[in-house]
Amino acid sequence: MALKIVKGSIDRMFDKNLQDLVRGIRNHKEDEAKYISTCIDEIKQELKQDNIAVKANAVCKLTYLQMLGYDVSWAAFNIVEVMSSSKFTYKRIGYLAASQCFHESTDVIMLTTNQIRKDLSSPNQYDTGVALTGLSCFVTPDLARDLANDIMTLMSHTKPYIRKKAVLIMYKVFLKYPESLRPAFPRLKEKLEDPDPGVQSAAVNVICELARRNPKNYLSLAPLFFKLMTSSTNNWVLIKIIKLFGALTPLEPRLGKKLIEPLTNLIHSTSAMSLLYECVNTVIAVLISLSSGMPNHSASIQVSFSRHAHTFSLKYLGLLAMSKILKTHPKSVQSHKDLILQCLDDKDESIRLRALDLLYGMVSKKNLMEIVKKLMLHVDKAEGTTYRDELLTKIIDICSQSNYQYISILVELTRLEGTRHGHLIASQMLDVAIRVKAIRAFAVAQMATLLDNAHLLTGNTQRNGICEVLYAAAWICGEFSEHLEEPMATLEAMLRPKVATLPGHIQAVYVQNAAKLFATVLRGQEGAPADSTVAQETSQLLIDRLPLFVQSSNLEVQERASCILQLVKYIQKLQQKDVEVAEEVTALFAGELNPVAPKAQKKVPVPEGLDLDVWINEPPSGSESEDEGRKSKGKAVFAKDESRHTKPRYTEVDEKELAKRREVRKAEQANNPFYIKASPSSQKVYQDGVGVEHIPVVQIDLSVPLKVPDQYVKLEEERRERNKADKKKKKDKKKREKGEKGRRRRGDSGPESEEDITPAHMVDIVTEEMPEWIDLRFISPLILLSLSLAPHLQVCDIQGNLQDGSQVVVSVIFENKCDSFIKSMEFNVLDSLNSKLQRPDGAGPHDGLIVPFQLPPGISNEARFIFSVQNIVMPQKLKGTLTFIVKTDDSSTHEKLDFKLHFTCTSYLITTPCYSDAYSKLLESGDLKGCSLKLEGVNQPFHHLLARICFHHHFSVVERIDSCASMYSRSIQGHHMCLLVKTADQTVSIDAKCDEPGLLGNVLDEIKLTFSQC
Amino acid sequence: MIKAILIFNNHGKPRLSKFYEHYSEDTEQQIIRETFHLVSKRDENVCNFLEGGMLIGGSENKLIYRHYATLYFVFCVDSSESGLGILDLIQVFVETLDKCFENVCELDLIFHVDKVHNILAEMVMGGMVLETNMNEIITQVDAQNKMEKSEAGIAGAPARAVSAVKNMNLPEMPRNINIGDISIKVPNLPSFK
Question: Does ipTM come in above 0.90?
Answer without folding.
Answer: no
